[in-house]
Amino acid sequence: MAMVSIPANTSAILLDIEGTTTPITFVKDILFPYIKDHLEEHLSAHWEEDECKQDVHLLKKQVEEDLRLNRACAQHVLDQSVHTDEEKAIREVVDNVLWQMASDRKTPALKQLQGHMWRAAYAAGRIKGEVYQDVVPSIRRWRRQGLKVYIYSSGSVEAQKLLFGYSVEGDLLDLFDGHFDTNIGAKVESKSYERIAERIGCPPEEIMFLTDVTREAKAAEDAGVNVVVVVRPGNMELTEEEKLHYNLITTFSQLEVIDSA
Ligand SMILES: CSCCC(=O)C(=O)COP(=O)(O)O
Ligand SMILES: [Mg+2]
């Protein structure tokens, strides 16, 4: 097993979730189908509640933004406060959410609603967050070596905390020093990594980002962050050029801290 060094000046490890800590199949075959199967029921049950109203309001704002930028989109998200036909309004929200999911969009509006829906399923024990076996021991080792560990995922911070709080390995939230989602910016934009460095309180060069997606790796690299690309079963194939360019690992155990002592 080829080892990859964590540079001695590193103070924080930043982890992606889907395809990095967690199998893509967990997200695609369990989390996303849960939303599709329960969306209409969830909206009907909570339509009059403040949280649901805020979720719908955010979706509506996203539609307005998409229209402003001429993005093709399912345009019908109505403000339920002015709509009289609740069933029709719910149907339109369902259409918009399903359209966003089919396009694998990562908008904060979509991710916030998903997080709220998963909460009930995790709390009832119907879903448990999956993590690869090498993840927990490696994070514990890095922490013992003085590194901070953060999550940066397109999933909302709430969804991240549910996944790790109700995981197959129990409550893992104490492994993390903080969480970031797309409220700090998209994962494919380098500015997001600069903001994260600022929030963590260290220069980008002291952060190592682990992800399966090379567009995210490139954005992080452009910000000065060190990057390792994680190759897990079912992750997107890398090009030959990408394989040569990036440090690759198939398990977190391959990452070793260079001891400065
Ligand atoms: C964190 S829970 C669900 C994951 C999700 O919704 C998602 O979009 C995965 O994105 P990632 O940035 O972790 O690859
Ligand atoms: Mg990922």
Automatic annotation (TrEMBL):
Enzyme class per UniProt: hydrolase
Listed pathway(s): Amino-acid biosynthesis; L-methionine biosynthesis via salvage pathway; L-methionine from S-methyl-5-thio-alpha-D-ribose 1-phosphate: step 3/6; Amino-acid biosynthesis; L-methionine biosynthesis via salvage pathway; L-methionine from S-methyl-5-thio-alpha-D-ribose 1-phosphate: step 4/6
BP GO terms, sorted: L-methionine salvage from methylthioadenosine
Annotated residues for binding of substrate: S153, S154, K187
Required co-factors: Mg(2+)
Domain of life where this protein originates: Eukaryota
Subcellular location: Cytoplasm; Nucleus
UniProt entry keywords in alphabetical sequence: Amino-acid biosynthesis, Cytoplasm, Hydrolase, Magnesium, Metal-binding, Methionine biosynthesis, Nucleus
Chief place where the protein resides: cytoplasm
InterPro entries: Enolase-ppase_E1, ENOPH1_eukaryotes, HAD-like_sf, HAD-SF_hydro_IA, HAD_sf
GO MF term list: acireductone synthase activity; magnesium ion binding
Coiled coil: none
Described purpose of this protein according to its UniProt entry: Bifunctional enzyme that catalyzes the enolization of 2,3-diketo-5-methylthiopentyl-1-phosphate (DK-MTP-1-P) into the intermediate 2-hydroxy-3-keto-5-methylthiopentenyl-1-phosphate (HK-MTPenyl-1-P), which is then dephosphorylated to form the acireductone 1,2-dihydroxy-3-keto-5-methylthiopentene (DHK-MTPene).
Family under the similarity heading: Belongs to the HAD-like hydrolase superfamily. MasA/MtnC family.
Subunit-structure text: Monomer.
UniProt protein name: Enolase-phosphatase E1
Organism: Esox lucius (Northern pike)
